[in-house]
Design brief:
heterodimer; A: 1024 residues; mainly beta; 5-stranded mixed beta sheet; 8% helix; globular; B: 612 residues; mainly alpha; two-stranded antiparallel ribbon; 10 strands; 39% helix
Chain lengths: 1024, 612
């Protein structure tokens, strides 16, 4: 044993010193096609361990071994070259960029693989593409760039604009159970608020082969984010700074006071009631003659700024020696909100400030031991008005405001309407938040990873051991500052009975103050604390035996998270055992086997651990002899995979994660009863909680994937096609088929099956017309369509009503036929009486009555089935243009509340301009697209979901565009910097869609969101 | 060698670091033991029923599912009918809450079988009655093994649980007719299909539970028990609920020669789910017998039994005590959700616009001596010579409604157009008909912070039910006593003295009993069921009225204090009311609610109610 170690050391020593006298020295320089030196390019004589890397000037010097003459030069992102250097002493190597990156390393679950040998379905995007977008939230940069991923950005709220992300759509019965697993550097973490400058790449694992290793958590796909690391070489400093302007892409367009009142009076007239607005009021609205008593306020104008500022800055440094490599980055984002700050006592606007920092260090302790330490974190500050509820509710209530509910802020005074003169429509736009103070939330996040890799070549060649520990902590501190502010109500002097008013002044308007200016209160809810840790240990093996490449891995991991939302006192945990074996014959035939063996706390002992295997195979046809003489394909690979992945998550109807699903007969304290005559406290109560299911087990996803990777025309064209089919079984759900008289809170059962199929297309064209001009075009298409194969549902005799057989999230409602008119043929009985201008619906079951049995599937689900992206890049000398067009289709929005019901549910809320313009009147009967105004017919016309309220939410939008200019390198060098780039870019610059009344990505429901933003941005980036 | 040792040390060090990093927070475990055990301090059914205190808490929680007639919070039960109430579906009250269930769905005739939502009049699936029934059965099935409670107490507690079942069934029966009869708790894997029972079986089921429960309950709570335990079921509550059900069952809705709805064929009729299949007059005798039994026991009860709240000389206060005060001597069943109501949630809508008295209702209240009010005064807008039509009336009018000029909030109520109560609103006012609601909310200040309850069943209802049943069995002469007793509480003369010229036929007496119930139980959700069980289509169809009250002005245009002009106007039409040209929109299907459509397609037999 000892002897063996000694030999090992001797070899090490030899390698490091390389002091053999008969060698000659080779000197050279490695440059790119522009003549720029490449720093850190690796050079090695094939068949030896004799190698080096280039220095800061791209220069290297290397002893030539006696019998070896083939020098291999490689550099990430460039094509590797092998050069015969026999007899040469001086050499210039021009490296060619490898556009398609065949040699790229792709991140996969618990490791990485070369792109060539991948047999699973994985797509990747690099940081270079992401930093072209000025979006504050990284996840919003992904739109259209990753095949198989759909993102919908519902909100533009600073610091709360996370999109909804699905990988290959939805395959389970519940949308909230469909979120993918997100990992940053291998640990479950949020990446939305990372600084894009600290990210190396984002990979999405889609099929079973790629996700089986995550076993119980992999069913919805996995997104892996890898942060940047240092490379050997002199310190490289990169500084970037940008500033931009945000504007709402679209604001809701409301009717004015005169139109509102006209609509209301029409409704009253149609219902046989007296008008709600007097002729005087109508005239005052029409002429705007008395703006205090009869206001006409455009609340969008009153409350929101046209432009708000955003800026981003980043400094990062990377470099290293052959022993220690580092990357360190500090980033700052400042994003302002869109509210005008009318209350000058404090800043009550939304804003988001984010400081990101990260240091990743890799230390080679010895030639065989490497330790990586990642230290990442961020400090986020979010400010918002103190509306007493969330931002969605804030916008909901702002959207309720009627134009005459008050004059808004006039000369610094808040003026509300006097209900004596206008008794309807009290919803004022400022009431939801104005003068109420603000909330300020500070969140600190700290992520620490320590990762130790030990090469175990001394046991057997190719063996290594790795252990990793991670710790995350989150701390939030909220400050609630509450305040109050007086408002003023206009009165005619003559109506103030306590004043003696001369006749001539009786109609003078005076303002009467209500309430007082309160001091800014302070309260601090108990701070939020969250922490979790993760550990893994693995043994890896990789070896080549002649034409056979084999590798294997066994990994154990476990994690623990504290303070979960349910059973807060009991931390949640996972354990898993992972295995992987890969085999490749001459890089021609590839086979992978992946397996996950996982335990989840949600299941009883007998069913607690599940095995999730996946097999995949690839055939690189271009490696075959018979393909050597063709010139069409540069590369052609077929791949396929099959496997099982699991899911253990079950959310209840209010979005809280259920735990310990097997826990039986849980009883709890509950509502008591107020016995007695004057006893003010209740006798305590106890009750039965949600029942448990002792035989509950995994939700299982059986996934198939078929793919082709091909490169044509000298690698200029890359085509990647994937087809997938997934069958989800034993879905965790609570059925509603049992008779209601059971009176229980039913347990979660394994009931339900969903199939999901679709395809992904990636086309990339990359070409260079001449030395100065090159361009690339990329197209991605992702289609996923699911179908409920089985669902425990109450089935009416009419199949069109069943959820089974339709997509998850299918919208249902009545078929709108037209607006009623006297003598309209084939009108079934509608509840109540139909008057001209009321909605007539189709009697689908032909029973003569329009009722709930005539509800049928309408439109598409809320999430898009087909997503696409078109990336265009043009480079001419130093000028580059990069654009990303994103589209989504086969999706519908069911309008509701503000967007559907004129005057709202209480008939005292807002009216959209479109609802007024398109309303049915006897005159506009032929062209009207909205029903007649009527409160009596509200249940028939507006309460019924129907295809009248289903809107196509397809869109194509210019998500990003960037124009940048690299300033002449020679000039820049004189300033002492390596490169200087100026750029302008934009986000959501234009949109083509059909929804019109709101941004096509936003929600048109009773949870309207902060408007989505358009951003114009300009910045500078330099490196030295 | 040194180098290797170095790295070994490093690895070891790292291991230790990694483990301490993790284990500094808690014990480090690997594999299955890393997965968390469910809560260590499990409370299971055994924990609950092995502890006398916990077991009773379980029953107190079951109590909390009992019906409550007022809104109290924005929850499914707490905001039923979207803050409306079904009193405003009767011919006594009208809702001016524009967005409640009445204005959105009932008045325009938009209600249908598919309309069960959070807002329904009574939820078949959402009300929580079935959950209450399960809780009661779980209690009944498990209390036997609880240590530390003597058998007598257990019997009493079990009887209370039975009453929770009976109350839920009695509510559902009056909204839906025959029901599936649940006789035990079920386990989640094996919920049996229980078909709907006939109307008669369901009635018997409820009555039997009441009789069964009454055996083990004290007739009334003792005086010292009342302070802490008022609200618990008693035998009188059980016998009283039985009378309510027998009366409903004897009424012609189900007990008639033909079903109430015959427009189309219905399985509900042929299967006798909403019809007994014939008329059985002896069912009225059952009511009489039950009432006789009730009063016989009450008479003999050692605690003094129940009696109408008649203390003091303030007739209005007597009446207020009867419906408002917890622990008053006539409260048979009182249900609770809170100690006292916050104004915002319970009262803003309940005593606000969700039910405004209509003129026809105001006219029902006689003069203070009991003689009828002459409503011909409304035919002329100016009363001449001026007599305040709101003065000197049945004290219950002032306790139930806020009328013009009555004392209110330390001043007088101003329900005239422009007055402090009525305002100038063109529509949707809490005083739109010229009057508002006083009952339960009082003048707001008086009720604030007071212990609150819902008068689910009170003795006065037994009196009036007895009178009604005696009249139906031909014993009208005996019936007068029971109605006159109720009138006596508010100092009205007996019926015969109040109406000297009336010939008291069975029909005439029946009308007066129903009117007396309207007067006595305004806003107590009694009138709707009276209208329904007597199939009073005419009351559904008739148009209702209100008053616009204006202050009188003299020739110079100066306001004359204390005098008003009254303009009678017709309220906007409900769908089922007759059209201006006499068109009929009414259908008897409105008497019962529809089952939610999804429920009728489940695997048990639940035929839809007729017409829906």
């Amino acid at each position: 044993m000892k002897k063996y170690f000694l030999q090992f050391l001797v070899v090490l020593l030899c390698v490091s010193t390389s002091a053999f006298s008969q060698e000659t020295t080779l000197q050279g320089k490695v440059v790119d096609k522009n003549g720029e030196p490449l720093i850190g390019a690796a050079l090695i004589f094939v068949g030896t361990t004799n190698g080096t890397i280039t220095n800061i000037d791209g220069v290297f010097s290397l002893k030539t071994p006696a019998n070896k003459t083939i020098l291999k030069c490689s550099f990430l992102g460039y094509k590797t070259q092998e050069i015969n250097v026999k007899g040469k002493k001086l050499l210039e190597i021009v490296m060619e960029e490898d556009a398609q990156g065949l040699d790229e390393i792709v991140v996969v679950g618990y490791g990485e693989q070369s792109k060539v040998s991948i047999t699973g379905a994985v797509s990747t995007v690099s940081t270079k593409e992401l930093t072209r977008s000025p979006a504050a939230n990284m996840a919003n940069m992904l739109a259209g760039t990753l095949s198989g991923v759909s993102t919908v950005q519902f909100s533009g709220q600073p610091g709360a604009d996370n999109p909804e992300i699905f990988v290959r759509g939805i395959s389970t019965l519940n949308q909230s159970n469909s979120t993918p697993l997100i990992l940053v550097d291998g640990v479950e973490r949020d990446f939305f608020n990372l600084d894009p400058n600290e990210v190396e790449s984002i990979s999405v694992l889609k099929d079973a082969s790629a996700t089986a290793v995550f076993g119980v958590r992999g069913a919805n796909g996995v997104i892996i984010v890898v942060t940047r690391r240092g490379a050997e070489g002199k310190a490289k400093v990169s500084v970037s700074s940008s500033v931009g302007v945000q504007q709402p892409t679209r604001l809701v367009d409301f009717a004015d006071s005169y139109e509102w009142a006209t609509y209301y009076n029409e409704a009253m007239k149609n219902d046989g009631k007296d008008p709600g607005f007097s002729a005087d009021a109508m005239e005052a609205f029409r002429t705007n003659s008395n703006p205090l008593v009869y206001p006409n306020t455009d609340w969008m104008e009153m409350l929101f700024k046209k432009n708000s500022i955003q800026s981003q800055h980043n400094v990062n440094v990377s470099g290293g020696t052959n022993r220690v490599k580092y990357f360190t980055s500090i980033g700052y984002l400042d994003q302002d909100g869109m509210f005008r700050n009318h209350d000058t006592r404090y800043n009550g606007n939304f804003y988001f400030k984010r400081l990101n920092f990260r240091t990743n260090i890799d230390v080679d302790f010895t030639k065989t031991t490497k330790l990586s330490i990642n230290l990442g974190g961020r400090n986020e500050e979010r400010n918002s008005p103190n509306s007493g509820s969330d931002a969605n509710q804030l916008f909901r209530t702002i959207y309720w405001a009627t134009p005459f509910s008050g004059a808004g802020i006039v000369d610094g005074k808040w003026i509300k309407k006097n209900s004596r003169y206008l008794s309807i429509g009290d919803n004022d736009g400022l009431t939801p938040y104005y003068g109420k103070g603000f909330l300020n939330n500070i969140k600190n996040t700290l992520n620490i990873d320590a990762d130790l890799q030990q090469n175990l070549d001394f046991i057997t060649k190719g063996l290594s051991f790795r252990i990793k520990g991670s710790y995350n902590s989150y701390h939030t501190l909220q400050k609630n500052r509450s305040a109050s502010i007086p408002y003023y109500v206009p009165w005619y002097k003559g109506d103030l009975t306590w004043l003696t008013v001369p006749e001539a002044e009786k109609l003078d308007v005076v303002l009467v103050k209500t309430g007082d200016e309160g001091t800014l209160g302070y309260s601090e809810p108990s701070p939020g604390k969250d922490r979790d840790w993760y550990t893994e240990a693995s043994i890896n093996y990789k070896q080549k035996f002649g034409n056979h490449d084999v590798s294997g891995m066994i990994l154990y991991n476990q994690s623990r998270a504290y303070y979960p939302s349910n059973f807060t006192d009991i931390p949640s945990g996972y354990v898993g055992l992972v295995g992987r074996a890969t085999y490749s014959y001459k890089s021609r035939y590839l086979a992978d086997f992946n397996i996950g063996y996982n335990g989840s706390e949600n299941f009883p002992k007998e069913n607690r651990f599940g095995v999730f295997p996946a097999l995949s195979a690839g055939w690189v046809i271009t490696q075959e002899k018979f393909m050597q003489n063709q010139h069409l394909f540069n590369f052609l690979k077929l791949r396929t995979s099959y496997g099982v992945v699991g899911n253990d998550k079950d959310y209840n109807s209010s979005g809280v994660l259920n735990r310990f699903l097997y826990l039986e007969g849980q009883y709890d304290t509950g509502t008591g009863y107020y016995f007695g005559t004057t006893t003010s406290s209740a006798k305590p109560g106890m009750l039965e909680s949600k029942l448990g299911n002792t035989v509950i087990t995994w939700e299982k996803a059986y996934k198939q994937n078929y793919g082709i990777d091909a490169y044509f025309l000298k690698n200029k064209l890359m085509v990647k096609l994937d087809y997938f089919y997934e069958f989800r079984d034993d879905i965790l759900t609570t059925p509603d088929v049992a008779p209601v008289y059971h009176g229980m809170t039913l347990p979660t059962l394994n009931l339900g099956q969903v199939s999901n199929r679709g395809f992904e297309v990636v086309l990339k064209w990359d070409d260079k017309l001449n030395r100065d001009f090159n361009y690339n075009i990329g197209l991605t298409l992702s289609y996923a369509r699911n179908k409920i194969e089985y669902r425990a549902e109450v089935k009416t005799p009419y199949e069109y009503q069943w959820r089974t057989g339709k997509p998850v999230g299918q919208q249902f409602g009545k078929k709108f036929v037209g607006f009623y008119y006297e003598g309209m043929p084939n009108v079934a009985t509608h509840p109540g009486t139909l008057y001209p201008g009321d909605c007539v619906y189709e009697d689908i079951n032909k029973d003569g009555v329009v009722d709930g049995l005539d509800d049928t599937a309408l439109g598409f689900p809320n999430y898009p089935l087909l997503n696409g992206g078109l990336q265009i890049g043009l480079n001419y000398k130093g000028i580059s243009v990069n654009a990303n067009l994103v589209g989504a289709t086969l999706t519908s929005r069911l309008l509701s509340e503000t967007f559907r019901i004129p005057l709202g549910d209480t008939f005292s809320r807002s009216l959209l301009q479109s609802q007024f313009d398109a309303r049915w009147t006897p005159e506009t009967a032929a062209t009207a697209t909205e029903p007649r105004p009527s409160l009596n017919s509200y249940a028939n016309n507006f309460r019924n979901a129907s295809d009248l309220w289903i809107r196509d939410a397809s869109y194509i939008r210019l998500k990003n565009i960037e124009v940048s200019y690299n300033i002449n390198p020679k000039f820049v060098k004189k300033l002492g910097i390596n490169s200087l780039r100026l750029y302008v870019n934009g986000y959501n610059l234009f949109t083509i869609d059909k929804l019109k009344i709101a941004d096509p990505e936003t929600r048109t429901s009773d949870r309207p969101t902060y408007p989505v933003m358009r951003i114009f941005n300009t910045g500078i980036n330099f490196n030295f | 060698m040194k180098k290797f040792n170095y790295s070994i040390k490093k690895i070891a060090l790292f291991f230790i670091a990694a483990i301490t990093l993790a284990s500094c927070v808690d014990e480090f475990t690997i594999g299955d033991s890393h997965l968390q055990k469910p809560p260590g301090v499990d409370i299971t059914i055994d924990t609950v029923f092995n502890n006398a205190d916990f077991a009773q808490r379980f029953l107190w929680n079951a109590y909390s599912t009992l019906f409550y007639g007022m809104p109290w919070e924005w929850s499914t039960r707490g905001r039923a009918m979207n803050m409306g109430n079904f009193e405003a579906m009767t011919d006594n009250w009208q809702s001016y809450l524009s967005w409640d269930y009445n204005n959105r769905n009932i008045y325009p005739g938009k209600y249908g079988a598919t309309e069960e939502s959070m807002d329904s009049k009574y939820h078949y699936s959402l009300e929580g009655s079935w959950s209450g029934i399960r809780k009661a059965y779980l209690f009944l099935e498990n209390i036997g093994r609880t240590p530390g409670i003597d058998d007598a107490t257990k019997k009493r507690l079990k009887a209370e649980a039975k009453m929770i079942i009976a109350c839920h069934y009695s509510d559902m029966y009056r909204h839906f007719g025959g029901l599936p009869l649940v006789r035990s708790s079920y386990n989640p894997y094996d919920v049996p299909n229980i078909d709907r029972s006939t109307a008669k079986e369901t009635l018997k089921f409820i009555v039997d539970i009441c009789d069964d429960a009454a055996k083990d309950l004290p007739w009334a709570l003792s005086v010292d028990e009342r302070a802490t335990w008022d609200g618990r079921f008693t035998a009188a509550a059980a016998k009283g609920l039985k009378i309510r059900m027998l009366l409903f069952g004897a009424s012609p809705l189900f007990n008639d020669t033909e079903p109430y709805y015959t427009e189309t064929a219905s399985e509900s009729n042929t299967g006798f789910y909403t019809w007994y299949g014939g008329k059985d007059e002896s069912m009225w005798q059952d009511v009489v017998d039950a009432c006789s039994e009730f009063f016989a026991i009450n008479e003999l009860d050692a605690t003094g039994g129940y009696r109408l709240a008649m203390d003091g000389d303030d007739y209005r206060l007597r009446f207020r005590t009867a419906y408002f005060e917890r622990g008053n001597p006539e409260m048979l069943i009182s249900t609770r959700v809170e100690y006292s109501h916050s104004y915002d949630e319970a009262f803003n809508y309940f005593i606000g616009p969700s039910a405004v008295p209509v003129l026809e209702y105001l006219d029902l209240f006689p003069k203070a001596d009991g003689t009828p009010f002459d409503n011909s005064v409304w035919n002329d807008s100016v009363i001449d010579p001026y007599v305040d039509p709101w003065a000197n009336r049945d004290p219950r009018l002032y306790e139930t409604c806020i009328v013009n000029g009555m004392p209110y909030q330390d001043r007088t109520a101003e329900t005239w157009i422009g007055g402090r109560e009525r305002g100038i609103a063109m529509d949707w006012s809490s005083y739109f008909t010229g009057a508002g609601t006083y009952k339960f909310g009082l003048d707001k200040k008086l009720a604030s912070g007071k212990p609150a309850h819902w008068p689910y069943l009170r003795l006065a209802e037994i009196y009036l039910s007895f009178a009604e049943a005696l009249n139906e069995t031909g014993k009208t002469e005996e019936a007068f006593y029971w109605i006159d007793e109720v009138r006596k509480r508010v100092n009205l003369q007996g019926l015969k003295d109040s109406y000297p010229n009336v010939v008291w036929t069975k029909e005439r007496f029946r009308e007066e009993v129903l009117n007396e119930r309207s007067r006595e139980f305004g806003r107590e959700l009694v009138r709707w069921f009276d209208q329904v069980r007597w199939k009073r289509a005419g009351d559904f169809k008739k148009r209702l009225h209100g008053l616009r009250i204006e202050r009188m002005k003299d020739a110079n245009g100066n306001i004359v204090a204390g005098k008003y002009k009254h303009f009678k106007f017709t309220l906007s039409k409900r769908y089922w009311q007759d059209g201006d040209n006499g068109e009929n929109f009414f259908s008897p299907k409105w008497y019962l609610s529809a089952f939610p459509i999804t429920e009728t397609y489940k695997d048990y037999k639940l035929p839809q109610n007729p017409g829906w």
